[in-house]
Amino acid sequence: MEVITFFNNKGGVGKTTLAVNVASFIATQYEKKNRILFLDADPQANSTQMMIPDEIWEDFYGFDAKRPTIMNYLTSIEEGNSDVVYVDVPFKKTENRFAVDLIPGHPSLAIIEDILSDGWNKCISGDLGGFRKTNWLSLLKEYFKDSYDYLFIDVGPSLGALNRSILVNTDYIITPMGSDIFSLIGISNMSTWVRNWMNSYRTAVGLLHDKHNPVSIMKYPLNLNIENASRLVGFSIQQYVTKTFAEGGRRPIASYDKIIKNVPEAIETHLQVLIKNGLTIDDLNLGDIPYLYSLVPLAQTSKAPMYDLTRADGVVGGQSSSVKKYKEMLKVVCNKIRDNLGDSDAN
C-alpha cells in the first residue's frame, strides 16, 4: 500500500476537491491498483463533508455517535499512550458515490496537535515512546497494508506536529498550487519546514539506536529511513482568474499569468530535495485545473465526485459540457500521477 498525501502550506487552492476526485477516479476508472482508503486528516474535515450525506452526520458526530472517526483510532494516543486503536473502516465504499473507503475526519484532531508535539520533542531526543507516537501512521499503514493499494490523505495547511507525523510516514506528496503569490510563499515555507524536521529526524534515528537495543526498536513498524518519505510526485496549478479579451477569448490576466509561469521554477528551486528520483519538472506538472464555479457546490450538495455529476444531480445546460471537460482533465492528471508512481496499467 502506497501513501499519498495532498499537502500545501497555502489554503484555498482546491486541494480537497482535487484529492477526493483523484481518489475516486482511480478507484473507478482503472483495472489495477484501485483499492482506495481515504483518510481525512484535516481538522476542518472538508473531505468528510464532501462524502458523507448530511442525514447520517449524527451517526458520526452526534452526542450519541455510533460510528467511529479518525479520533477513535487515536484514542490511546489522546490518553497519553503510544498505540493506535484498530477499528473497522467507518464509511465503506458501498455507502458513497466516490467508491472509496473513508476514515472520517474530526475537529478534535486539533487537540491531538499538542500531544504529538510533545511526542516529537521526545522523538528527536531518541525516546522510543516518542518515536511510536510520531509514527502512529506507520501503525495504521501496517494494519491496512494488505487491504488497499493506496491510502490517500487530505491534510490542512498547517506546518505543525500533526502534519509532520503524517509526512514522516507518507510515501508521496502531491502539492496543489494556486495562481497567487501566496502559493509561492507557501512552497518556500514548506521547504524550510520539511528540511528542518527531516534533519532532526535523521539525528533522532541515531540517538534511538544509541538508547535502545535493536530488539525493542524492531518490535514496532517505525520509519527509520526518512530519505524515502514524502517524495514529490506531482503539482497542479489551480484557481485561474480570467478576463475576457476582444481577441483570444478568456485567459488569465497578466499578473496571474506571470505567477503561473513561476510555479515550476519555484517547485524545482525549493522542493528539489523532495522530488522522486527520475522525475523531471515536466513529469511533476500534472496540469492546470481551472475554476468550475457551479460544479463545486453541486458536487458538495450531491455528495458526488464532479466527474460523475448527472442531470439527476441538477446538472443543466452547459454544465454537462463542464462535467465532461473535468473528467477529461482528471484522466490526464490521474494518468500522470500513476505514471510518476510507476503504477500505470502499461507497467
From TrEMBL:
Q: Name one Pfam family in it.
A: AAA_31
AAA domain mapped to chain residues: 1-200
Q: What SUPFAM superfamilies does this protein map onto?
A: P-loop containing nucleoside triphosphate hydrolases (SSF52540)
Domain of life, per UniProt, equals Bacteria
Q: Which PANTHER family match?
A: P-LOOP CONTAINING NUCLEOSIDE TRIPHOSPHATE HYDROLASE, PARA FAMILY PROTEIN CT_582
Name this polypeptide is given: ParA family protein
